[in-house]
Write a structure and sequence with these properties.
The structure is a homodimer. Chain A is 62% helix and 6% strand. By secondary structure, chain A is mainly alpha-helical. In chain A, a hairpin with a 3-residue loop joins strand 1 and strand 2. Chains A and B meet through helix 1, helix 4 and helix 5 of A and helix 1, helix 4 and helix 5 of B. The structure holds a DNA duplex.
Amino acid sequence: MHWDIKTDRPIYTQLIEQIQLKICSGVYPPGSRLPSVRDLAREASVNPNTMQRALAELEEAGLLYTHRTSGRFVTEDTDMIKHVKNSLAEKHVQEFLKKMIELGFDSSEIMSIISEMMKREGDET
Amino acid sequence: MHWDIKTDRPIYTQLIEQIQLKICSGVYPPGSRLPSVRDLAREASVNPNTMQRALAELEEAGLLYTHRTSGRFVTEDTDMIKHVKNSLAEKHVQEFLKKMIELGFDSSEIMSIISEMMKREGDET
DNA sequence: ATCATTGTATTAGGTGCTTAATACAATGAT
DNA sequence: ATCATTGTATTAAGCACCTAATACAATGAT
């Protein structure tokens, strides 16, 4: 699995986001067991304490649960996962629109820029 | 002027982004004089050192220049400003599309979500 | 000439994040 | 019963960022 950690924000927040993403996109399916804290930390090249912190917050949010000594598991509440996925999508759209409007682009300009850049994205195959 | 500083990222990077935005959107027009470091720091409720750091980086990037004791000014190079504006827009679109695709949305879904949320944005007048 | 204002530099201290090195209790496998 | 593995907790150190408190040289206004 790929972990993309940058230096411009706290690592533990990036871990939260990326684990959340793996859950929402099905890389970690509902009910499945996650690798151990130590293994995940090794994968992501971070300290186990940092990974533990991210996992603890995801557990508090309800996306994960723990069986004390057998490991951590993804929630089986698929409705919750869908809800998180939609919330993230909405957040991304809102933040994106805010930035573009602040820059001075109007709705039609935004739409055309996006569709233009989508074409270019599709080229890479 | 509004300054929106959060705690999840270094303050000086947020200052850079927001000053850059004010330049690109015309709040600080080409050739105009900026408030003094101390005044800007007071406006944004940050330490003068932190504001100074942000301004120094924008100066290194060429968006600002300094007359040693009379103040800082926005570049008169309007082409450069346009270029920065377009680069920012491209970056925002790419980051946005990346996030949405990672979440599992395809092109047509993305377009419809955006146009749907644009309607709702337009309501607030 | 004097003085307030400009950008700039320096020092010290505090805070949050990260890492490293341990340690411990609980459990599943042998 | 023993042992490796699980999550969890603790302590110490280092680092980047931020603030506070100064200080100084250069310039424009008076």
